[in-house]
Description:
With about 170 residues, the chain is an alpha/beta fold. The protein has helices spanning about 1-10, 30-40, 50-55, 75-90, 105-115, 130-140, 150-160, and strands spanning about 45-50, 65-70, 95-100, 120-125, 145-150.
Amino acid sequence: TPAAAASRLMEATGEPISLPDELRADNLVALVHKSVERYPDKEALRWKLPRTRRQTGGLPQEEETAVWTSTTYRQTWDWITQVAMGLKHIGIRDGDRVCIMSRTRPAWLAADLGAMSLGAVTCPIYPSVEPNQAAFVINNVGAKLVFVENLQQAAKIEQVRGECPT
């Protein structure tokens, strides 16, 4: 029967994945930390700079050549740790919700992992949404904090801040 054929296609074949104990981790933050311990000086992230339009929300003054930059696992971990310590200092705790309103970029990762390292739950908001849509997400999850990519995104949140009691 077609249902039986479809069921056979869904069955896993082959051997289960087996990882040595030194590669196992209980969560994503622990997995990144294990990578830092194993490869502290290896490149972890790479991205192009400058991205004037993305960083400031304005147009570049002149044509800029994109330059690749990177961080090692140790540098990335230090960045994540700094974000986590900042969040802890302002009162973010286990179970709190934190929104991230940004395009995909290294700072998004640092915000995400920094918050998760404290036990916070991260809730992404598309940077293209209107302010009222962002407010809906913020209120729906009860976010205590919103990371924003740039001044343009901060202005959106500022427009609805009074509507977001948490």
